[in-house]
Every structure is written in structure tokens, then in C-alpha cells.
Amino acid sequence: MLICMIAPGKMFYFLIGGIFFLIPKRKFANAKQFWIVNCGMILLGIITFAIFKFQFLSDYVGTSGTQSVMDPTTVNYSISNILGNIPNSINVLFNTYLDRAEFYFNTMIGSSLGWFQVNISSIVISGFVVVLLGTSICSTKEEIIAYPIDKKFRYINLLFSFLMFMGILAALWIGWTPISYNYIEGVQGRYFLPFLPMVLFTFRNKTVILQKDVNRWLGLSTYVLLMFTFLSIVPYVIG
Q1: How far apart are CA 161 and CA 53, in angstroms?
Q2: Is residue 14 a contact partner of residue 3, using CB atoms and an 8 Å limit?
């Protein structure tokens, strides 16, 4: 049910359902049921997505593309444009990495709020990064035993996170990027937040093991950082 609710509104986020593959096979009657149930979840999301986004897909399959919002004098990329000129498409992806990677990271953490007019201090952003890394890398002995992280966990999380990442790029590539652009336009870092925990948890390991639980300190640090963020927003609200 949740997959059906997510697929129509938020493209490709239904792939978060890939975490169902992390359910141990012993929880199912047999291996066949494991694959039927989990693959069925993903297939259900694809079908729901295709039904509700059929018009979107049909508009961008053609060679001409639709009129661009960014530049009314031209059209957006279409699926045919992208697949028909692979060297140019690779160049677009490479330029997107060079030109936009830092923007994606900063806006994912929250450096620019609202319509990018509220800029948060780099010190606060660095604090959030430290907290995120601390919660993902550091573990106590109890957590390692209770929530073991194996290769299967890492591969599944990274695979579906990568598919969602590429899906978001593809959606904005054909839905927002003028054909005259040499990079993908319209992508914001906040689009990656739904699957950011999946990526962070893959870094959990047995290398950094804490003797004491620091969750309270991490929670307090997050609260302080949020207060500084709030104080940064206030002038824009009352001004």
C-alpha cells in the first residue's frame, strides 16, 4: 500500500521498497516466496508509477521534446535525444558532476533554504555533517550485535540508492533541462534526503566502536545546530 502511495507522487522513491530484500529468508515459507514477495513489491511500484505518469513518459519519448520552462525559445531533452547521442549524454553527466556536485551536497544538508535566499553558516552545515557521519560510522558493541551490517545490506542499500539517484537525474533531465544546456538543470540536494539514511548506514562498521552511547550528545548537538539554523531564518521572516 505504501509503495502505491509513493510511486505516483514522488518518482523513483518507490525503490526504497528495495529494503524489503533485507528481510531474512527465514521469515518466509521458502526462497521462492521471498523472491515473489519482494520482486512483487518493486513491480507494483513500477506499474503504479507507469499508470499515473503515463502522460509524462509519453510526452518525453518523442524526438522533439516539450517546450522548455527555463528557455521558451527551445525544447527540453527527450528520451530519444539522450539515448540517440550517447557521447553527448555522457558529457552532460560529467559536466553535471563537475558543476553541480557541491550544490547538491550543500542543499541536501540545508545550506540554502526557501527559494535559496536563506543561507546557513558553513560552520552550522559542517556541524550537521559531523553529526550525520557520527551517527552512521560510530557504533556501540550492543548496536553491532543487535544490528549487524553485512555485504548484502551494503550492496542492496547502495544499489537502490544509486537507482533512485539516477532516476531523479533522468526525470529532471527530460522534464526540466533545455536541450542547449550541457548539464542537468532543476535537481536540488533535498531530493536525495529520502534515501540518504540508506547510504549512511552502509558506512557502519566494526572499526569505530564506542565504549559509551553518545546518542544523547548527538541529539543535543543536533538541537543546538537547529537553533542556530532557526536564528538564521528569523531575519528573513520578520524583515
Answers
A1: 21
A2: yes
Sign of CA dihedral 162, 166, 167, 169: positive
Q: Where are the domains of the chain?
A: 1-52, 76-239
Do 176 and 70 form a contact (C-beta atoms < 8 A)? yes
- What is the grid cell recorded at 186? 532543476
CB 34 within 8 A of CB 152: no
- Cα R_g (the chain), whole angstroms: 21
Q: Which helix (H) or strand (E) holds 113?
A: strand 112-113
How far, in Å, CA of 81 to CA of 153, rounded?
A: 36
Contact predicate 37/20, CB 8 Å: yes
Short-list 10, 9, 15, CA closest to 44: 15
Looking at residue 117, the DSSP 8-state letter turns out to be T
Element (H, E) at 139: strand 139-140
What pLDDT digit, counting tens, does each position of 6-54 carry? 444 466 787 888 888 888 888 888 888 899 888 888 888 788 777 776 6
Number of H helices, E strands in the chain: 10, 4
Is the pTM for the entire model greater than 0.70? Answer: yes
209 strand-pairing partners? 139
Q: How far apart are CA 92 and CA 201, in angstroms?
A: 30
Q: For residue 113, what pLDDT is reported?
A: 82
The beta-carbon contacts of 63-67 under 8 Å, at least 24 apart in sequence, are: 65/174, 65/179
Residues 28/36, Cβ–Cβ less than 8 Å: no
